[in-house]
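Translate sequence into structure tokens.
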Amino acid sequence: MEQPLNLAAAIAAAAEALVGVLDPAGSRHQMTVSPTQLRVLSLISARPRTNVNRLAELLDVVPSSASRLCDRLEAIGLLRRVADPRDRREVRLVPTTAAEALLGELAQRRHRAVGAVLDRMPPRAQHELLLALRAFGQAAVPAPADAQSDIPARTA
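Result follows.
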């Protein structure tokens, strides 16, 4: 199905608007934590068995850079390094209670900020947005490798 020419541009503009709503909600937290540090905490919180090498892969940086980020987070009490009980040679990254509280507060602020924007939209538009976002999310999930072989290659 051919998409309207301005659909991708409209999505990009909506993403920029969303960032404009989310960023101020995150900038009022009490600790001085950079957006990158918040991202690290979010990644680690969502992936309990993360080590420095896996974090580096997720961030697309070299392990030494990921390790320095962890050093800074550890120094301000938001991250702990703990030995993996299954393999003591492995060191896992664990967000502290303070980090979890910070992420929870940030999520609440962002939820309220988005809610305020949604309140300015008519209920019908909110429902259509919900359906469209669900469809977009499903389409964004990569198809299994064997299913993709049935899809003809697109050429430029």
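Note: Helices lie at 7-26, 35-46, 52-59, 63-75, 97-119, 123-140, 145-148.
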